[in-house]
From TrEMBL:
SUPFAM superfamilies: HisI-like (SSF141734). The gene is hisI. Its EC number is 3.5.4.19. Pfam families: PRA-CH. It comes from Salinibacterium amurskyense. Binds 1 zinc ion per subunit. This is Phosphoribosyl-AMP cyclohydrolase. InterPro entries: PRA-CH, PRib_AMP_CycHydrolase_dom, PRib_AMP_CycHydrolase_sf. It is found in: Cytoplasm. In the N-terminal section; belongs to the PRA-CH family. In the C-terminal section; belongs to the PRA-PH family.
Length: 125
């Protein structure tokens, strides 16, 4: 059995994915081997199709209203290793091999910029 993605497979994924009313699906980007969360972006159907078929992550820019592929300008590419819809099929987790910083600020992860200090919960409470 081949692991190669077919047009029918992609169309099946697009039918299963629960895009929001604005046509977008949140995409959590994670370093595939360490499981570190790198960033959150959004994909429309075309961005999801390109991500699944081209091996590089493509997003939909909500501010510019256009597709963009991570690394085309900066060289900080994201190569797809894994992808999965969540249990409600309304969010996507993409495991990537990140080349260079993931964040446009130059940090490795977009979640390094503004760390919060929450009250920690404990299982015996």
């Amino acid at each position: 059995m081949s692991d190669e993605l077919t047009l029918e497979t992609v169309n099946d994924v697009l039918e299963r994915a629960q895009f929001a009313a604005d046509g977008l699906l949140p995409a959590i980007i994670q370093q595939w081997d360490t499981k570190e969360v790198l960033m959150l972006g959004y994909m429309n159907a075309e961005a999801l199709t390109r991500t699944l078929t081209e091996g590089r992550v493509t997003f939909y820019s909500r501010s510019r209203q256009e597709l963009w592929r991570k690394g085309d300008t900066s060289g900080h590419r994201q190569y797809v290793r894994t992808a999965a819809l969540d249990c409600d099929r309304d969010a996507l987790l993409v495991g990537v091999e990140q080349i260079g910083p993931a964040c446009h600020t130059g940090t490795h992860s977009c979640f390094e910029v503004d760390p919060l200090v929450p009250r920690q919960g404990f299982s015996d409470e």
